[in-house]
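User: quick one, sequence for these tokens?
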């Protein structure tokens, strides 16, 4: 889990700062990971053992502390519980007495939530491990429908949120050499909702937000993810491939093929370390706007808001970063990111990229600091985008409570 606490777009001409609170929580990729719970910020954490089951509770009150320093967020529900970030995780290692594992996790952010239930039966060594997964999530669709502001350094709410319900099976293939493979087949039901939680079929400009044109999309998705990694004392190479195929079980369900890859190469250059990464992808067939590749933001092109560069049927992003030690726990960094939608923005239904004035190509560069401690890794990045807008990022990752 990684939480990016604050982003400060800086306007030197007007000598003022706009504060924006971001929470980025990765979805559960390893539902049976027995690693300790992760706690960020100020709050309460408790582990409870009930028989063989273990319950982890983590409540984060960080937003309460930051609220006095911030401008109002882009959406305010007014409900007191909306200001709390927390998680609840229940693990049972032997549900029916045959080493069956059950994992139930609930995560709540400021504007998003995620509930996951996963069940795994024991399988013989060397046979693909099966996990039965049910997941429900709600999250703002900022990458495609967000409105770029402050010279594209931030993305405000476009009034579209995605409510997803999925159920299916994950198959984790036994590792072979440097490759690992996961295959899944799941039914997905996607319902766009507005900020008030009501189902919608069109955005604020009156364009459809689903492929079907109705209030929801349904699909069966066959997905395969492959990961290659190789490392030694001086370098490492990594490749991630993801292919998704929409299967038209019913005539109204989506049929598409979506491909994405991430290739990374790192190497030591004396005491420094250089990391280069290339990300690309494309989708053919049926497509809803929310399936577009969003370009811009932390983890994509720094200096821009989430999806503020573009949202297209295809994308290509290059990230370069050089880190060098300053002392035992502190590192300096210089970086440059760039990316493009390869001219495919107009191929997305409703053309949200053009309507929101996204350029389709952008670059950002800057410098930062990395502080490693027993509490986790703290990161500060100062980025400048193509419109000379300056943005300061504060990040915390791998924080242990």
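Assistant:
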């Amino acid at each position: 889990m990684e939480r990016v606490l604050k982003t400060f777009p800086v306007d030197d001409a007007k000598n003022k700062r706009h504060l924006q609170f971001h929470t980025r929580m990765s979805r559960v990729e390893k539902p049976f990971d027995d690693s300790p719970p992760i706690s960020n910020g100020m709050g309460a954490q408790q582990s409870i053992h009930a028989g063989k089951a273990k319950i982890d509770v983590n409540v984060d009150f960080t937003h309460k502390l930051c609220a006095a320093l911030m401008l109002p967020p882009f959406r305010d529900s007014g409900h007191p519980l909306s200001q709390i970030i927390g998680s609840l995780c229940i693990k049972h290692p032997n549900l029916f007495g045959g080493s069956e594992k059950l994992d139930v996790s609930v995560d709540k952010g400021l504007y998003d939530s995620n509930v996951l239930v996963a069940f795994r039966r024991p399988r013989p060594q060397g046979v693909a491990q099966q996990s039965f997964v049910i997941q429900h999530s709600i999250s703002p669709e900022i990458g495609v429908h967000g409105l770029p502001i402050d010279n594209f350094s931030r993305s405000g709410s476009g009034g579209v949120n995605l409510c997803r319900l999925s159920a299916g099976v994950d198959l984790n293939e036994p590792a072979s050499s440097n490759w690992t493979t996961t295959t899944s087949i799941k039914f997905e039901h996607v319902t766009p909702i507005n900020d008030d939680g009501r189902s919608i079929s069109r955005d604020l400009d009156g364009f459809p937000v689903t492929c079907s044109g109705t209030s929801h999309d349904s699909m069966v998705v066959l997905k395969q993810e492959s990961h290659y990694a190789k490392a030694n004392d001086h370098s490492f190479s990594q490749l991630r491939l993801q292919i998704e195929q929409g299967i038209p079980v019913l005539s109204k369900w989506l049929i598409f093929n979506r491909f994405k890859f991430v290739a990374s190469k790192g190497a030591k250059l004396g005491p420094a370390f250089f990391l280069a990464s290339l990300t690309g992808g494309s989708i053919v067939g049926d497509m809803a706007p929310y399936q577009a590749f969003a370009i811009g933001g932390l983890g994509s092109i720094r200096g821009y808001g989430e999806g503020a560069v573009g949202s297209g049927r295809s994308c290509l992003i290059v990230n370069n970063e050089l880190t060098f030690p300053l002392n035992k726990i502190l590192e300096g960094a210089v970086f440059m990111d760039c990316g493009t939608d390869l001219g495919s923005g107009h191929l997305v239904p409703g053309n949200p990229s053009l309507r929101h004035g996204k350029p389709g190509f952008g670059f950002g560069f800057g410098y930062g600091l990395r502080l490693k401690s027993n509490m986790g890794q703290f990161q500060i990045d100062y980025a400048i985008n193509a419109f000379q807008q300056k943005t300061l990022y504060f990040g915390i990752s791998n924080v242990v409570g």
